[in-house]
Amino acid sequence: MKVQSKFEEFERKVIEKLLNGEDNILKTLRNQYRKANIKNREFSGSGFFTTFDVPDDATRLEILKSFHFGDVLGQCDGVKDGIGFVLFIKNGAMNCLEGYTYGDDKWPETLENYQLSYSSGAKRDLDKLREKWGLV
Question: Which of 15, 20, 38, 127 fits a 20 to 30 Å CA distance from 97?
Fold first, then answer.
């Protein structure tokens, strides 16, 4: 398997975890992700930025137009303090996924062994997420 396809598999798992949960906002974003294409991916040394192109026929969020969230964390070989992620929404559509390392470690060349979790623990705290969005 090529390095790029392994990264794309990793990225897909991160996004699936970020968009997991019984919530209408997350459901709309999941539907957008199914239709989206990768517009650009850039590695910064300590992380990456993946920009999405969501087609016009994908339903946009009406309540929250522009915001971000990132309650998914990770551990992987070669990064002592862990990794984190932020998904940016712009004009009601997925815009960009940022991945980054905590501490001084560089983003690993390969992602062989990694675990993803929520900042709230094994189970996601949807109420806390909705509160951050200003919906509670």
Answer: 127
| Identity of residue 77 | D
How many Cβ atoms sit within 10 Å of the Cβ of residue 29? 25
Per-residue pLDDT of the chain (136 residues; tens, 9 = 90+): 455 688 999 999 999 999 999 999 999 999 999 999 999 999 999 999 999 999 999 999 998 889 999 999 999 998 999 999 999 999 999 999 999 999 899 999 888 789 999 999 889 999 999 999 988 7
* Count of C-beta atoms within a 10 Å radius of residue 71: 20
* CB 23, CB 130: distance < 8 Å: yes
54 CB burial (10 A radius; 0-12, 13-18, 19+): buried
